[in-house]
């Protein structure tokens, strides 16, 4: 008997008179690239009674029509869509096409017990490791949490963000799972409700990544969904089939990883030796030291940003595109990131410090892409007046907290020579955290913004620089 509804699996271009009965298994909003407080689109994943899934988008111009009509978890009768090819690195389904809401799209609330509530497509850890980081599709993982790190804090885009790393295990193997921001908080709340034994976690719509040389998964901002010990068929089947030594008798999750990143107070006031720039310039060995200094001005004629790959490494213009040495491939999209050189003086000497994206975001209070857009992609020879920061020794961390600076200044610099022996492992954890990336599924805004910047990817230095704020003392910072 013919059904009055089309099957999601049959969707293809060439018509718009589609009629579906589907459940919204996931729905989230995507912010505009330069205006994070504005919604650019609403993304969703739809599933029909056959279990077929497809991605759908409500673009910004139609939000006023549909934003209040669609909610996650509900079943709807929907009709009239345009169909477009699906592509990108963060595909939520394996369907080759996606649906676009149009002015004449109809949405009507409905019910159906035949349509799955969660729409899970579990992927084993062995399969995840086999796919590797080049896999374009988001995956669903059902696994035991057999290890967890301490919650860490790091700075991203000028904001302090929390991060936690899990060890996931199933009968095929183990892998890491990194959760950022609200996802880290959500997991803590869910684990607090766990009774006895190792909890089973469901991470839906996760991205496969390579971290510290190993394949892992991490959340995709707003798209990923997390469940702990949910009463759903896939989890029941997993628990019945799962065989891990000690899994049935374990009463707590093992602690894994390195110690958490020290606080500002610990790092700036007690962890590392205090010194002066004059003494720093005389040191023969590399190390981590603390200095208190003022920013005199920016270094003339120097680049203040660089084109970065999604892996955060700098890109080299090549044949009309960019080449990333780390990824070993050409890319056509980049993200501007800060690399600012400042002349710094503490009264004993002057030197140049280089400060990168995370610390610059804190001190400037703006993202690099905002300043690049305002500067129309100008680099060397032009510096926006908002900029202020550091080089010489690589900056690990910056603090502008007034109370810490006052305490720091009250501490005398030891007269004896600073011990030049430094633990080489210090700072590795920080570098690892910085390399972790929180991704967004929607990339069209980034592409549109960057498009004008990479038509002719040449970043030559100007012959004569512009001195911004030279000779003035604008701010005081202490630096690692």
UniProtKB/TrEMBL annotation:
> Where does the record place the Replication factor A C-terminal domain?
293-379
> Pfam families, alphabetically?
DUF223, Rep_fac-A_C
What are the Replication protein A 70 kDa DNA-binding subunit B/D first OB fold domain coordinates in residue numbering? 5-108
Gene3D superfamilies annotated for this entry? Nucleic acid-binding proteins
Task: Extract the SUPFAM superfamilies matched here.
Answer: Nucleic acid-binding proteins (SSF50249)
Q: Which InterPro entries match?
A: NA-bd_OB-fold, Rep_factor-A_C, RFA1B/D_OB_1st
What name does the UniProt record give this protein?
Replication factor-A carboxy-terminal domain protein
């Amino acid at each position: 008997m013919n059904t009055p509804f089309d099957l999601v699996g049959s969707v293809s271009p060439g018509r718009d008179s589609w009629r579906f009965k589907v459940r919204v298994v996931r729905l989230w909003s995507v912010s505009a690239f330069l205006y994070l407080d504005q919604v650019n689109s609403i993304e969703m994943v739809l599933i029909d009674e056959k279990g077929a899934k497809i991605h759908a988008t409500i673009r910004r111009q139609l939000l006023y029509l549909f934003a209040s009509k669609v909610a996650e978890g509900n079943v709807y009768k929907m009709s009239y869509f345009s169909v477009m090819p699906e592509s990108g690195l963060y595909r939520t389904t394996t369907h080759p096409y996606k649906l676009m809401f149009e002015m004449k799209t109809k949405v009507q609330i409905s019910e159906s017990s035949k349509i799955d509530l969660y729409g899970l497509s579990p992927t084993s850890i062995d399969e995840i490791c086999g796919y590797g980081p080049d896999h374009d599709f988001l995956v669903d993982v059902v696994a035991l949490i057999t290890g967890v790190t301490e919650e860490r804090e790091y700075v991203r885009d000028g904001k302090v963000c929390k991060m936690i790393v899990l060890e996931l295990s199933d009968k095929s193997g183990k892998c890491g799972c990194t959760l950022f921001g609200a996802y880290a908080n959500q997991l803590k709340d869910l684990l607090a409700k766990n009774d006895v034994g190792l909890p089973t976690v469901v991470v839906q719509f996760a991205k496969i990544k390579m971290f510290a040389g190993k394949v892992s998964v991490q959340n995709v901002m707003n798209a990923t969904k997390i469940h702990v010990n949910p009463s759903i068929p896939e989890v029941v089947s997993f628990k019945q089939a799962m065989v891990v030594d000690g899994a049935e008798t374990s009463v707590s999750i093992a602690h894994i990883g390195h110690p958490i990143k020290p606080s500002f107070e610990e790092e700036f006031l007690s962890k590392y030796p205090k010194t002066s720039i004059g003494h720093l310039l005389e040191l023969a060995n590399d190390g981590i030291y603390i200095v208190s200094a003022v920013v005199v001005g920016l270094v003339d004629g120097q680049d203040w940003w660089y084109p970065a790959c999604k892996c955060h490494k700098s890109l080299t213009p090549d044949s009309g595109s960019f080449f990333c040495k780390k990824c070993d491939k050409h890319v056509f999209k980049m993200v501007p990131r800060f690399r600012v050189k400042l002349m710094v003086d503490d009264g004993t000497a002057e030197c140049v410090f280089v400060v990168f994206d995370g610390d610059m975001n804190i001190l400037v209070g703006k993202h690099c892409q905002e300043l690049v857009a305002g500067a129309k992609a100008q680099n060397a020879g032009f510096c926006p007046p908002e900029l202020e920061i550091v080089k010489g020794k690589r900056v690990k961390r910056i603090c502008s907290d007034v109370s810490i600076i006052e305490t720091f200044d009250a501490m005398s610099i030891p007269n004896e020579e600073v011990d030049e022996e430094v633990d080489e492992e210090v700072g590795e954890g920080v570098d690892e955290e910085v390399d972790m990336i929180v991704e967004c599924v929607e990339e069209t805004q980034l592409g549109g913004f960057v498009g004008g910047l990479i038509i002719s990817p040449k970043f030559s230095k100007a012959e004569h620089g512009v001195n911004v704020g030279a000779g003035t003392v604008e701010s005081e910072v202490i630096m690692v």
